[in-house]
Write a structure and sequence with these properties.
This protein has five helices and seven strands; from the N terminus they run ββββααβββααα. It has a four-stranded mixed sheet, covered by helices on one side. A hairpin with a 4-residue loop joins β6 and β7. The protein starts with a strand and ends in a 5-residue tail after the last helix. α3 crosses α4. It has about 190 residues and is an alpha/beta fold.
Amino acid sequence: MRIVHIGDALVEVHVRRSRRVHGSRAIFRAGLPPEVVVSLRASEREVDRAIGEHRDWFARCLARAPAAVLGLDRVAVTEAQGRRLARALLKRAVAAEAQAMGLTYRRIAIRDQRSRWGSCSTTGTLSFNWRLVLAPAEVLDYVVVHELCHVVAADHSPRFWSIVEERRPGYAEQRAWLDRHGWELLAYRPPT
């Protein structure tokens, strides 16, 4: 981690090393500190250079970042509590929806993804982000339907979306909610 001047502010920039990066890469996720990814063997000087190369881009991203409105800074849900609650809620929602759709699945996994709400593997494992418990119930239900629809159609083809529409006629609202507020859920850092 580095504290650097970006625009008129001192900003915390996270530095991550990766064997898959040759040079540097910049990542910005609203609500989280900017991140620079460098190679495993990058020197401190190369890290400083990478931050400098991405400074203007970070400044633009920070300037247009949305303001938090959900008030999650007042929430005190630990990751363990969130995972337990997510497992209970998702297990119930998936079972009911799978039965209604006449589908089977292998198992449910609760994860801590950086940018996803859920996924459906080719083996039938449904994975969900535990932070969905911070969203309204209808948003969690939409993600459940979305992932179960992938059991029928693995892609995001028109056929897939028509199945989603059939199961959740108002899905566009929930999807828009995630587009608008999902970054706040992903940025939530639970107390330890």
